[in-house]
From TrEMBL:
CDD domains: crotonase-like (cd06558). It holds the Pfam family ECH_1. It comes from the Bacteria. Belongs to the enoyl-CoA hydratase/isomerase family. Residues 232-241 have a biased composition (Pro residues). Gene3D superfamilies: 2-enoyl-CoA Hydratase, Chain A, domain 1. It comes from Actinomadura fibrosa. This is Enoyl-CoA hydratase-related protein. Residues 213-241 are annotated as: Disordered. InterPro entries: ClpP/crotonase-like_dom_sf, Enoyl-CoA_hyd/isom_CS, Enoyl-CoA_hydra/iso.
Length: 241
């Protein structure tokens, strides 16, 4: 139900349950967490790409599995349904999105650093129409990404958001032709992986860590991260002229 593949320094993690629109059940959520953890502890992996099999990213949590008690009872301190979404990923991650990106799947996409979507993509918190609240940090990350007013419009109407509208909101980074999201995400990931990792990761951490800090503390944190020995290492020399 979770497939992994290595492309150089990029690890692709695929939600593979096309018969259920890649809806995630308990065992699949556990396998996803294990795949992410393995990639994050692999020094040869610099960037992750998360995608779905077939023509769908993820339709959300599997409602039949939830009704059958397949997921542990959620708690404030316990793991969320998607397992990985309570903390930011340790390495850059890009979501490559085709088709449905709803409910927990939408929250999973928001967990990623960047989102590449095809024109077939649709987004939304359709879980709210079933009386299922957001538990994978969607109500936190969505307003930080696109602003409170637009986030409330999406959340409180539980409507479907088209790929064009998502691009205008800044919800997705790039809009591509149908079937091309993974290819474009891999190009982006290769570009990220080719950068000197110290400077790249310092910039990423500064962006992610600034939200809870006043501006002057955020600028100091930027300097602290940028001036670590790892961040100031020169890039490796090329053998090409």
């Amino acid at each position: 139900m979770i497939r992994t593949a290595r492309h150089g320094a990029v690890q692709v993690i695929t939600l593979d349950r096309p018969d259920r629109r890649n809806a995630v059940d308990g065992p699949m959520a556990t396998a996803l967490a294990e795949a992410v953890d393995n990639a994050e502890h692999d020094d040869d992996v610099h960037v992750l790409v998360l995608t779905g099999a077939g023509d769908t990213f993820c339709a959300g949590n599997d409602l039949k599995a939830m009704a059958a008690g397949d997921f542990p009872m959620p708690t404030v301190d316990g793991p969320p349904p998607m397992r990985v979404t309570r903390t930011p990923p340790a390495k850059p991650i890009i979501a490559a999105i085709e088709g449905y990106c709803f409910g927990g799947g939408f929250e999973l996409a928001l967990w990623a650093d960047l989102r590449v979507a095809s024109t077939t993509a649709e987004f939304g918190t359709l879980n709210l129409t079933h009386g299922l609240p957001c538990l994978d940090a969607g109500t936190v990350r969505l307003p930080r990404l696109i602003g409170q007013s637009r986030a409330l419009d999406i959340l409180l109407t539980a409507r479907r958001v088209s790929a064009d509208e998502a691009l205008g909101y800044g919800l997705i980074s790039r809009l591509v032709d149908p079937g091309q999201s993974l290819e474009h995400a891999l190009h982006m990931a290769d570009a990220m992986a080719s950068l000197p990792p110290g400077a790249r990761d310092a910039a990423r951490r500064s962006v992610l860590e600034q939200w809870s800090l006043p501006e002057h503390e955020a600028t100091q944190n930027e300097a602290r991260l940028a001036l670590t020995p790892q961040a100031t290492e020169p890039p490796p020399r090329s053998n090409h002229p």
